[in-house]
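SEQUENCE, STRUCTURE TOKENS:
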Amino acid sequence: MSQGFIGKVVIETMPTLTSDSGTATASGNNIDVLGGTLINTAAATDTLTVNAADSVIASVGSDSGTATGSSNAISIVGTGGVTTSATGSTVTVDGSGAGGGATVLSQATTSGSTVTLSGIPSGTKLIILSLAGVSVSASGAEISFRLGDSGGIETTGYISNSHSSYNAITPTDFHETDRNILFKTNLSYNWYGTITMTLTDGTSEWVSSGVLSNSNAVPFLITCQGYKATSSELTQIQFLTTTGSFDNGSIVVTCFS
């Protein structure tokens, strides 16, 4: 006796995009991309947009592109990271996600006696100053930084100390009230390190501390501390040398809200 099958089978179609160009639409279904090409747009100005309930994974290689979506998670996959096209560019991360936002300002220190990084966003509470290979053209130069607001760079009201140690040589200490001093350098030394600045009162009072060293075979080790209350909200930071000019390296200012 043969047995029958009573009921129904429903097969839902899953649209598929191959490496050929085309359009696939579906309601309530997934869209798969087969092959190694992923999704490519026809022009550099095109935008890939997804619905608010979806998520997007943007694979960004050497080409520029944009991925947008309301309430979506956007991931950058690969080893390239996020790269700006020129020194002095700004990368801003939306602060609405977990972990808050960050604004990164960068500037080469290859000329001039001052380097000013402006564009510190309103609401910044934590700043990390990073020096990478910074040097100057004259021995005995003191490298420092000053804070500024919308009224300009301020030159008074600092409480700043720096301590340097060099092998068995007697340590050297510096104290300044017109700037936050970092170190006194010799010709051809490249300096590396970070300084952390923290807003203490929610409006204008900043404390800083940092550790730096140089490229010498028997390097100096620098520790520094500073305090400054700006007249209004901080908008810019200026690095300066007391003699000579900057001739190498770069400075990065990372701002967190």
Remarks:
- Residues 5-19, 54-79, 95-99 have pLDDT under 50 and may be disordered.
- The radius of gyration is 27 Å.
- Residues 7-82 form one domain.
